[in-house]
Amino acid sequence: MPLPVPKYPELILTPYPTLPATKSAEKLLRQLSDKELKTDDTYSVTKAGVTAPAGKNYLYTLAPYWWECNGKWERRDGQRNPFCDKADGQKQLQDMSLALHTLSFAAQALGNNDYAERAIKLVRAFFLDEETKMCPEVLYSQCCLGDDPVCGDKTFIISSRYLILASQAFRVLPMPDDVAGGVKAWVGAQLAWIDSSQQGADAKASGNNITDWLHALYASHLAYLDNAKAQEYAQGVLSSLTGKSPADTFAPELERTRPRHYTQFTLEPLFILAPIAGNGTPPPEVTAWLKGLLEFARTVPAGELEVDREADERFVPGLAWFDRLLARWEGGDVPEQEPDGSAWEGGWNQRARLSWALI
Fold first, then answer.
1. 46-57 b/e with 16+ CB inside 10 Å = b?
2. Which of 201, 208, 225, 322 has the most CB atoms around its CB within 10 Å?
3. 105 in helix, strand or coil?
4. Cα Rg of the chain, angstroms
5. Domain regions of the chain by residue span
6. 136 phi and psi, to 5 degrees?
7. Could you read off the pLDDT of 252-292 as tens digits, one per residue?
8. How do beta strands 72-75 and 66-69 pair?
9. How many CA atoms lie within 13 Å of 183's alpha carbon, on the beta-carbon side?
10. Under CATH, which number does the domain 23-357 receive?
11. Residue 142, φ and ψ in degrees, nearest 5
12. Could you count the other beta carbons within 10 Å of the beta carbon of residue 153?
C-alpha cells in the first residue's frame, strides 16, 4: 500500500546560509524568532518520553523501520513504525537545532540581542547544563528493541543530522567565553567519539547516504572549530566521490523501496559538504559533479511505496532547492519565487520558506 502524503513536505537541510541575509530572509527570521521569544521553554534529550538504558542524558531513538510481528522483529524499508516516536529525543534535538539556527542568524542579521540571549539559553540547556545536557557520544540512537542488549548502530547519524544546523549557528552566535568554551569542548568530544567508536567507523564505511551524512556533520562541526581543517576534510571526501557517475553514486538508494526519497536524501549532505570544500563556494569540478547528480535525480522513477508521496508535483519542487543552490554558486540569476507547494495540504511552512530564503 502506498504511503500517505503528509500535510507538510519534509524540511530540506541546506548549507551554511548566504550572508548578508536578503530582505525576505530577514522578515522570516524576525517572525520565527519573535515566536521563540514568547516561550521560556528549552529543549533537552532528558525530556524525551523514553530515555536510554544508560541514563537520561544520552540521545535515545528507536530505529523507525523495525516492526514487531508475532514476537519477532522485522525490518520494513521505508515504512516508519509510529511506535518509534515514543522515544522522542530526536524531536527535542531537531526542535532545538531549528530554534537555535533561526535565533542565531536572526541575531546576526537584525542585531537583536534578545534573540542572541534566547539562543544562548538553549545552548546552555542542551549542551552544557549537567542535568539537561546531551552526551556527545550517540550510543543509543536508532535502537531496535529486538536486540539484547539494546544499543545504537551506524545510523546514529541520521537521527543526529540536525546538529549540522547547530554547528552553523555556533559560527555566528556571540557567546560568553564560558559558553563558547563548553560548546567547543562538546563538539570536539563528539568528533573524537566518531573517530574512535565502532559506530563511527561503520558509518564511514557504509557507502550510502549514511556515509554522506556522517561526512556532512563532521565537516560542519570542523567548520566551527577550525575552518581550514574543515576545508581540507571536505576536499578529501569529495575528491573520492566526484569520480563516481550519478548512477554509481545513487546505486545503494535506487535499490530501496523509496528511490526518489532516498535520492533527494543523498543530495542534501553532498550539497552541505560541497561549499565547505571551497570555503563558501564549491570548487568548479564539484559544482559540475553536483549538477550531473541533480539531472540524474530528475529521471528517477517513484517506487511503489512512494507513488503518491513522491509524485512529480511533490518530488520536483523539492529538487528546486538544489537548483537554487547551484544558481547561487555559479553566479547566475537566483530565483526568488518559491517552488509550488500546493501539492501538500499545508504547503510550505515558515521554516521551509526560511530555508529557501537563506540560500
1. bbbeebbeeebb
2. 322
3. helix
4. 20
5. 23-357
6. -70, -20
7. 999 999 999 999 999 999 999 999 999 899 999 999 999 99
8. antiparallel
9. 27
10. 1.50.10.100
11. 65, 45
12. 16
